Amino acid sequence: REREREREARFSMTAGHLDEAIGKLDGLLIDMEQEAARQGLEMPSIKFDPDDPWAKERSPPPSYVGKVRCPKSGYLMTKPFESQCPMPEAFVKDNSYLRGMLKPVVKPVNQAPAQKASTSKAAKDDKATKAAPAGGVEDFAKVLFKVARVTSVECHPDSEKLYVCKLDIGGGETRQVVAGLQKHIPIDQLQGVLVVCVANLKKAKLAGTPSEAMILAAEFESGEGVAVKTLVPPEGAQPGDIVFLEGMQPAEKFTKKLSSTVWGGVGKSLKVKGGVAHFQDHAFCVPSGKISVPAPDGTTIK
């Protein structure tokens, strides 16, 4: 074993010396070629790589084939075969060549990721809402429409379109709602106002902020651009009043977490008729009267 160790040590030493010698030879050749180039002298054509121990064992190359050293990396290129070869770049002592190869998948540390088709829960729910077939009265009865009072309104810290609102929905219960009303309704026209909300939607996050309900509003074109108006409960309405359809009774129980498919079907049939919110041909009502909307007939409520 001791002899084997000595043999291995001598071999490693010899290999190390050989690598060092080859490196010095390469350096000497490069220096000679650079000096010749500076003096305008023509170097003799190189037919074989001096580092190739088997070069003399092969047949000599054709007259038009020769070795030309890359001035950037020192790599001996076989011309004309490597005239367009990118490999010399790989011998530069940095990672620029590898980064170039990986460019499609390498991203700077601080670069925001490219936007992709969203697979978030909120996006999936929105897709299901748009694809849902129109719902009937039995589906409307699953939706918990409630009168609520907006007790506070703040601009969302990360969005110029969103408000973060607090709603009193009756029974001592408060809900946080993220609403896209910032561009359309000033804070002083929303805070303290009675609105109608959907109170049993699944919780979602908008711009990273939890939203636990949805304020209903009508959106339409006006002379000044897009106008948005919230639904207006009648005089005498109170937070917690449940909305029902004219000529019908409110449901005794509601779905705890409304599916986006059911809500999508119901939402397709919410319209303004005669200044009153309707589901299909049925007016929105609370015990004190009908829910009005200051919007043109046919305007969609959402």
UniProtKB/TrEMBL annotation:
Domain named TRNA-binding: residues: 139-244
Biased composition (Low complexity): 111-121
Keyword Cytoplasm applies: no
A molecular-function term among this protein's GO annotations: tRNA binding
Stretches for region Disordered: 40-63, 110-131
InterPro entries referenced in this protein's UniProt entry, alphabetically: NA-bd_OB-fold, tRNA-bd_dom, Tyrosine-tRNA_ligase_regulator
One Pfam family named in its UniProt record: tRNA_bind
UniProtKB keywords: RNA-binding, tRNA-binding
Amino acid composition bias (Basic and acidic residues), ranges on this chain: 48-59
Top-level lineage group: Eukaryota
Protein name: tRNA-binding domain-containing protein
